[in-house]
Amino acid sequence: MMHMTFYWSRQVTLLFTSWRTDSWPSYALTLLACFLASAFYPYLEYVRYRVRRGGKPTDWTTEEPFLLRSRGAGMVGKIAGGLLFGLSSALGYLLMLAVMSFNGGVFLAVILGLTVGYLVFRGEDDDQTAGLNSTCACA
């Protein structure tokens, strides 16, 4: 039976009919897998961002036009960026489908994993670009 509201149980079917949990250890492993996959998602986004930038550190100035900034290393950078985009999109949709199981533990594991992944991999880059936007001298 497919649930249409959140429920709290160790019995969950996740993504495939063969991925069913019926004991606490199997449920804990499922929650760990959801946590790790969702923590990996911001890492993929971070790597894709670095590939798009060409692996260079952020040294933007307010005088540098946005459209003239480095976007990667030609065709290889575009292909790598496209593959990383596809992989992160697929992982994002799988995480969404896992949350749509409506199991409360799975939901919390995914949200916690996304939060930890963001704090570890993406927090500092967002702070740098936010600082750039706040110092912009726009007339």
UniProtKB/TrEMBL annotation:
InterPro entries: Cop_transporter. GO terms for cellular component: plasma membrane. It is found in: Membrane. The chain crosses the membrane at residues 24-44, 75-96, 102-121. GO terms for molecular function: copper ion transmembrane transporter activity. Coiled coil: none annotated. Keywords: Copper, Copper transport, Ion transport, Membrane, Transmembrane, Transmembrane helix, Transport. The keyword Kinase does not apply. It is a multi-pass membrane protein. Pfam families: Ctr (PF04145). Belongs to the copper transporter (Ctr) (TC 1.A.56) family. SLC31A subfamily. This is Copper transport protein. The gene is LOC107893389.
